[in-house]
């Protein structure tokens, strides 16, 4: 088989993933706005009846999403990125015929409910599933199949955020241990990302999803971004530890009683928060832009940080389909705004200083939690269009990653994959005859 055929398939995979990614994105965006408007405006509900109805809608979507995952595709739980990395390493299988529908429908429901989850997890997993389907059709095995999985995953990330360059870097940096690097496989990843981005831009427009206005920062302010990076490195280590701790505790609760108890509680709370505290719900891409422009006081920003941190842990621990990229970026934005506001209480910030700290914080927290500083830098710039703050973004990301490593932090997807493999090994050992 020639390279031309392989690369044509990669382009086709990227285009299909682009269509599915846009369908998921637009569907979630519209439905997550439509059902609250229906309860509030169309039905005219208010007060306790409104909160009760919203809680019922959100918990229904949450439980249906979880039911689909648990009964038809357990591997579709959560982000899906660890599953892809495991498959590229030969440790997991991508059963595309069941993951594809469950990840799409389950992701649509969980994201639309208001859960603090990102759409990038489902689209990356959907992308890898499309790639596996193409590989099965072409009867590819081993290296060709693994490289196509990477191309599909990259196409999914490109579709989620319209960030094709970050998608390519994600494969190179995040899956560096698993990716079968060669000119053939690398070109396939680039072509799939480009095809996905072209489809995404054609259907949704060529505009950064988190467009933020920022101007160049005087170099005298660069030490402040270094300190921000150190802070975010510590926060990232705490984020990863708390996420795994939450997953373990919720799993033990499910084993003792029912796997639906905790998701029910979270779904009910999310439904109420959609109206009471909307900033504590959904992935948070639009929230990040909104908060940067509002100029909220430090106490309110700190409250939003705490609220979103708790809701991110709770939402991801339910086991429904959904990613953590977007929640990490929104949480980081709020932390960056807190940092900038605290500095402003002492001295005046440069022009667009708040936006610069918010943008740099996104790359910093991404670098410490995901463990991919280059991806964090490029992803944030593609998302915001704020190329004028490139140097502060780079400084924040690299010092955050250095701090995370110094504190013993590890990439969250690596941790989650090891956790999944350990749970399955323990289950097999328990089921084996003595």
TrEMBL record:
Q: Which UniProt keywords apply?
A: Chloride, Ion transport, Membrane, Transmembrane, Transmembrane helix, Transport
Listed Gene3D superfamilies: Clc chloride channel
Does the keyword field hold DNA damage? no
Q: How does it sit in the membrane?
A: Multi-pass membrane protein
**Where does this protein reside within or beyond the cell?**
Membrane
Membrane-spanning parts = 7-28, 48-69, 147-172, 184-204, 216-239, 259-276, 296-318, 324-343, 355-379, 385-403
NCBIfam families from the UniProt entry: PRK05277.1
Name of the protein in its database record: H(+)/Cl(-) exchange transporter ClcA
To which species is this protein native?
A: Ancylobacter koreensis
Q: Which gene encodes it?
A: clcA
